Amino acid sequence: MEPMHLIVGLGNPGADYAKTRHNAGFLLVEKLAEQGKAGWTNERKFVARVARGEKAGKKFLLAEPQTFMNLSGETVGALVKFYQLPLAQLLVTVDDADLPLGEIRLRPGGSSGGHHGLESIEQHLGTREFARLRIGIGRRDGTREITNFVLGKFDAAETAVLEKVLERAAGQIECWLDAGLQKAMSQFNGTISPTENKK
Q1: pLDDT at 140
Q2: Containing domain of residue 71, as a range?
Q3: Mean pLDDT along residues 111-133
Q4: I want to staple 5 with a disulfide (CB 3.0 to 4.6 A). Which of 60, 122, 124, 174 is the partner?
Q5: Which CATH number fits the domain that encloses residue 149?
Q6: Is 86 part of a structural domain of the chain?
Q7: Rounded CA gap, 90 and 77, in Å?
Q8: Which of 22, 115, 116, 124 is catalytic?
Q9: For the residues of the chain, what is the DSSP string, one character each?
Q10: Is the pLDDT of residue 83 over 70?
């Protein structure tokens, strides 16, 4: 089996959830596919949409689980097992309501932070030791009950910030593929400045 990297965006399938805050992971892998001119196919055996590409001499597989968020681990576990993938070559992109909109944070592992998609992946892989790139979506009024918020769509002002975030996060993933996790973390983690231009 040829070596490859797996980049999984988390979200919920279907038109009702498209472009919602909870689908930030989907939006990022779709950005990567667009940049790499990679076409999506539906692969039933993984219950996922997948796209294949190559960057910096590294082959990668983009995946969007179609299981709904809380069962994301079923898809990730199946992909990792099928491709006999070392977990060092797995990266999961996910929304994070505890980070403000405009901030991205790549980490080599850690807590799910209560995110059900990450919890499902941890359960299926039997470990927390896989890279995750958190995309801040913020939370309003400091409330803990955020279901309606995360399932809502980005407004016009948020979308403008999100576009810059996705550009930066895509660059971070390219750096991860090319130079590894530590360099990608040190060069890209942080908050997008309001004046940051697209590359």
Answers
A1: 65
A2: 5-191
A3: 95
A4: 60
A5: 3.40.50.1470
A6: yes
A7: 11
A8: 22
A9: ----EEEEE----SGGGTTBGGGHHHHHHHHHHHHTTPPPEEEGGGTEEEEEEEETTEEEEEEEESS-GGGHHHHHHHHHHHTT--GGGEEEEEEETTS-TTEEEEESS---TT-HHHHHHHHHHT-S-SEEEEEE---STT-S--HHHHTSBP-HHHHHHHHHHHHHHHHHHHHHHHH-HHHHHHHH-EE--TTPPP-
A10: yes
Cα–Cα dist 64/48, whole Å: 5
Task: Give residue 152's pLDDT band: very low, low, confident or very high (50, 70, 90).
Answer: confident
Q: Looking at residues 162-170, what average pLDDT do you find?
A: 97
- 198 found inside a domain: no
Residue 52 lies in a domain: yes
Q: Can you tell me the mean pLDDT for 44-48?
A: 97
Residue-averaged pLDDT of the chain: 91
Cα–Cα dist 19/30, whole Å? 11
Q: Confirm whether 115 is a catalytic residue.
A: no
Domain count, the chain: 1
Say how far apart CA 108 and CA 74 lie, in whole Å: 21
Confidence check: pLDDT of 199 > 60 = no
More confident residue, 114 or 72: 72
| Residue 97 counted as domain residue | yes
